[in-house]
């Protein structure tokens, strides 16, 4: 209803439509005076270049899609932050969808984004997801795709990840070097690759230091919540009174563990040492301060967009692109929860 | 490059383009058999209906824009959650941008969204923002607009807010009824309406209970961070040793206050009572558990989208719409940090 065509501007100013169009695009062969007149009138008439028409011509939407399991999670919101900052610098908008860890929803969302003709897609897979048809469809259509954090090794596309196995190994090694001899692991759900890799890293560290692996010391989370941390801490200490170390899948759950130990006055780090994963900012705020593995979430977002941008540029120029995997560095951060007494 | 036209499908199946188009749109006058053949072939050929062309016809993009100060903030990520859940239910996608509290960035982002021809915009204003030209431009173009949380009273559009003044009054009243006689206020920045209203609520409560207002007891945050909470707690207790209550603009900052008091062993609630604002889930996890004002963030997102949807529907049907303000309920939640000893 507020749409004004180039034609109207041309009529009012008594110049050709071509000149109006050139003026709006800042072509050098239009005089400054004419440009100013066109721009002023365009502003007065609330003229917007018809971006859909532009899209039809350039075949670019300058929009990318992002599908993540949940927005309300410090790790993911920090990745989002990195992605939209970097996208904006490069003139791209980001459509954000959350799968709520549901494969059905994730499939629907991929469809939506493909119908919207986004120029590329960045995803962190839901716990139920694997190399399913919806992912194959993205690749079959030649839409650039980057996976981060929760990936599937079966999918041949670019990825931005950390070495979860190595990071977990180092976390458990840290507990062992602090004197822990019986270490429990609160792990993530069964399906996602990063939960599997962290579990494997835990197992490898035990093996490396000749500590027998005991499957009853492994507690899988269903929803990865604070409350699960509290209830597993209770189970661990009631079933295995001599556990002296716990490696927890993520800081939020580890904070639940600490909250329970606080309540029942089990001393951390004296009786049990606890290490988390992700370096959530709250982990240095609670008492005792939580040792953890630093996972560069904002950087993960920035790199994911850059990798997608690289692939989109290759596609535009019709030059070949081979998917790459970027591995970001992690490090163990020692705080009070694993200090030697 | 993977684009296939209706023409190709029509050619292969030996039917008319109109029939193909009708089959894809599930018209009743096309046989089930033909529909199946068309859909199967469309899938095989990775056919996508050209959404830009569709957009040109319907003048709807089925996309809305959301501009918020920051994604990595539990309150905002919870509102986002509510908005995208509700938008998806109604077939809308959400483009999310963050202003990082910068007016310049916010203006650029409004421009981007208008050029993208979104059907509507939801915003929470940056601290520097007011009724500036970019907001006027949205309204002048007739694009439905809803503001939430950080609004400006000068802007005539729909809003979803809480009664910050009343909520703050109740928080401070809670401290007074628990016996506090000298109450400090760590407030938000000078500009945003919600910080102003919470400050006015604080003042009114003091007045109502005949406690003299002392401007030196008011500490304005610049960035509303955990660290500001720590440093203001130190300042307050060093400058006013007899302060026995603190009302803090938001839980994150209040958690900083508690962290400092823990460090220097000032007893909460015995020596000083502390109440926050927002009911961040961490506030019931820390020791002592933080009393706070519950702010329904997810609900705020849901209602914001619903209000926008209502306005978009009126626009589509060309029926008049009068902007409305929805006021959501808040309540004081008493936890350990304000308990009577």
Automatic annotation (TrEMBL), chains A, B:
Listed SUPFAM superfamilies: lambda repressor-like DNA-binding domains, Periplasmic binding protein-like I
InterPro entries, sorted: HTH_LacI, LacI/GalR-like_sensor, Lambda_DNA-bd_dom_sf, Peripla_BP_I
HTH lacI-type domain sequence ranges: 4-58
Keywords annotated in UniProt: DNA-binding, Transcription, Transcription regulation
Keyword Lyase: no
PANTHER family on file: HTH-TYPE TRANSCRIPTIONAL REGULATOR GALS (PTHR30146:SF109), LACI-RELATED TRANSCRIPTIONAL REPRESSOR (PTHR30146)
Protein name: LacI family transcriptional regulator
Source species of the chain: Flavobacterium okayamense
């Amino acid at each position: 209803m507020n749409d004004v065509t180039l034609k109207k501007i041309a009529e009012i100013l008594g110049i050709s439509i071509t000149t109006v169009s050139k003026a709006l695009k800042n072509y050098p062969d239009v005089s400054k005076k004419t440009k100013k007149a066109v721009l002023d009138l365009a502003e007065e008439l609330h003229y917007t270049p018809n971006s859909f028409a532009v899209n039809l011509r350039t075949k670019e939407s300058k929009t990318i899609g992002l599908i993540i399991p949940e927005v309300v999670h410090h790790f993911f919101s920090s990745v989002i932050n990195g992605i939209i900052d970097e996208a904006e610098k490069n003139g791209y908008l980001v459509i954000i969808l959350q799968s709520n860890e549901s494969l059905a929803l994730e499939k629907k969302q991929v469809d939506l984004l493909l119908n919207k003709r986004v120029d590329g897609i960045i995803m962190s897979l839901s716990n139920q997801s694997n190399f399913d048809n919806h992912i194959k469809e993205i690749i079959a259509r030649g839409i650039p795709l980057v996976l981060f954090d929760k990936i599937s090794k079966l999918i041949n596309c670019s990825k931005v990840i950390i070495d979860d196995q190595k990071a977990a190994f180092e976390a458990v090694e840290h507990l062992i070097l602090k004197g822990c001899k019986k270490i429990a692991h609160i792990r993530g759900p069964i399906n996602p690759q990063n939960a599997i890799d962290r579990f494997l890293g835990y197992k490898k560290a035990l093996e490396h230091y000749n500590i027998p692996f005991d499957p009853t010391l492994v507690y899988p989370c269903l929803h990865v919540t604070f409350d699960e941390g509290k209830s597993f801490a209770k189970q661990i200490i009631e079933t295995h009174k001599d556990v002296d170390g716990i490696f927890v899948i993520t800081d939020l759950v580890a904070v639940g563990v600490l909250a329970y130990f606080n309540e029942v006055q089990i001393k951390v780090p004296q009786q049990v040492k606890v290490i988390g994963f992700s370096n959530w900012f709250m982990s240095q705020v609670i008492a005792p301060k939580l040792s953890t593995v630093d996972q560069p979430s904002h950087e993960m977002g920035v790199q994911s967009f850059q990798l997608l941008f690289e692939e989109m540029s290759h596609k535009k120029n019709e030059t070949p692109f081979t998917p790459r995997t970027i591995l970001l560095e992690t490090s163990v951060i020692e705080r009070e929860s694993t200090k030697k007494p």
